Amino acid sequence: MEYTEISGTDIKVSRIGLGTQPIGYFDKDLGMQTIRKALDQGINLMDTAPVYGDGRSEEILGQAMKDYDRGEIIVSSKTGMEKVQGKGVRNTSPELMARTIEASLKRLGTDYIDIFHVHWPDMLQPAEETAGFLKGLKEEGKIRAIGLSNYSSEQMYEFCMHAEVNVCQPPYNVFERAVEVGVLPFCQKNDITLMAYRSLCQGLLTGKMNADADFKDHPVKSSDPKFQLPRYRQYLEAVSSIDALVREDHDRNVLDLAIQWILGHNNTVALWGGWKPEHMEPVNDVFGWKPDPETRDKVRDIVKKTIHNPVGPGFLEPPTR
């Protein structure tokens, strides 16, 4: 495992973090085993949020953490979302954020959260007020670092005028590369750690999915256009071609390439989602190499030639209250 420090802090994190969103929707015991397996693999970063299974992900993580020294685990969670008629809605009002952090602390069984993100930018709330609230939490010792999830570079710039931002958490993977134009350069220029989610694109980039899979009951894939025909087959073809390329040129596989696509940049962390302990088995196999510029160009060419109607992660965006 490789480790890095979160910008502007003394928080040392594994460069691969466990994304616990799926744990909030599947078997509790398997989720507990997955967290323990991740820790055994050297992963000390656990990313969660109140909306993952309506708090269930945080509860399971909190229960698992009872068996460990709290200082050994870096907890990353979020605020700024509420459920309205069963749907997630952006809300970074101080009142809502005050309620959500107290609820998160209780579910997690801790008195502080290491990295606390605004889950989505709220266009109805002044950035100055949101930043001021998080600064206050940091001064109280309830959080150790401030993160912004799903923010554009322009939105981060405005937020940074009012508070120090330590982490940015955008969707980023081989198929969803919009951050390479704005967000990633902004983070590099301003010394902000980039913590990528959807690193494996909901499992597409593991190379283990097949054309006959049924996703109608999956909490995320069911609404992701990538997993709907005929587009799904195009993505599978791209995965197969990328896998063949990196096997021939580097004796690696598509999963290795997917994670190193992110870790090949300085000051980055990749979140690896999983809800079964076996999902964590390949974690340490991805280290020991980096894709060179020529390989990256070849991968981009494969994606461009194979996927005729690509889509980004826009389907994830929640409405404004």
From TrEMBL:
InterPro entries in UniProt: AKR (IPR020471), AKR_Detox_Biosynth (IPR050523), Aldo/ket_reductase_CS (IPR018170), NAD(P)_OxRdtase_dom_sf (IPR036812), NADP_OxRdtase_dom (IPR023210)
DNA damage among keywords: no
Cellular compartments per GO CC: cytosol
Domain called NADP-dependent oxidoreductase: residue spans: 15-291
Keywords associated with the record: Oxidoreductase
GO molecular function: oxidoreductase activity
Statement: the UniProt record of this protein carries the keyword Nucleus: no
PANTHER family xref list: NAD(P)-LINKED OXIDOREDUCTASE SUPERFAMILY PROTEIN, NADH-SPECIFIC METHYLGLYOXAL REDUCTASE-RELATED
Entry protein name: General stress protein
